[in-house]
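Trying the structure run again after the queue cleared.
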Amino acid sequence: MLSRVADNLYWFSRYVRRAENTARLVGVGSLLQLDLPRSVRFAWRPMVDTVGAGDAFAELFPSTGDDASDAEVVRFLLLDERNASSLRSSVDNAREILRGIRDTLPQEVWEAINDLYLYIEANGERGVSRRYRMEFIARIADGCLKVSGLLTANVSRDIGFQFLRLGTAIEQADMTTRIIDAGASGLVTPRNEDDREAFQNMQWMAVLRSLAAYQMYRRHVRQRVSVEHALRFLLQNSEFPRSVQFCLARAQSILPTMPARPGVDRGLNRVVGLIRNADPAHLAAKNPADFMDEIQVHLGTFHAALADGYFCG
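Done. Tokens:
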């Protein structure tokens, strides 16, 4: 397979999964806004930092500071084409990549991506409003899952499919850490310190729900939601498909089916070891956001090794 085609397949699957999880990230804040009493201060600005777009947001909206409104942040995360990681940018990028490699994937995939693109164009501004936001997010998530289902059901299990799977696994691991980061980044400020634990647990319940993980959490953990248990489940559970551990194990199972590149294996093993050795109780007592940043750096290093090994030929 040409390195250019492999690169496009890898990034196509990453952009589709990024679009879905960007919508889910906005869902964390939207669910919390619905659940929290009006007396509790809710800050949207930290969400921009979790996707690594803080500098771009500050440059575009210099007067907002930390008091950015939900409409400004949600529009920036979902629709702003100047934000390279926005939902619209991800879908646009996936669509442009697919336009160039349409002969390698089923026609139904192109139709599904085009439907998503047209839906965002027609309903994006409506989806920013609180009244219709969850409906918009659900529709985007369903559309992205439809693309993933079509790829899984209708694509031959050749080397191209392995690059699709690899892109999905790495992007999901990265976005799960970013959604965890959002849950740990001080979105909620209670007026009374005695209420902090209760609101913190509500915050982590929203994180689980946004990742479609709440029911599986209850099935595996069988305890009330807490920071420690949520972190252990989302980081280290080996059976839930959106957990970081599951995604990295999938990547490990894919690499032996591809041409050997020792640098790629080493990069992946480092981040796997970091996750396996993490202590959720210790992370819960400190600030989990710092650890999430560390994982993201290691995932970036792994991606760089992957690009050097397979896409630069």
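The radius of gyration is 19 Å. Worth checking whether this holds up in the mutant runs.
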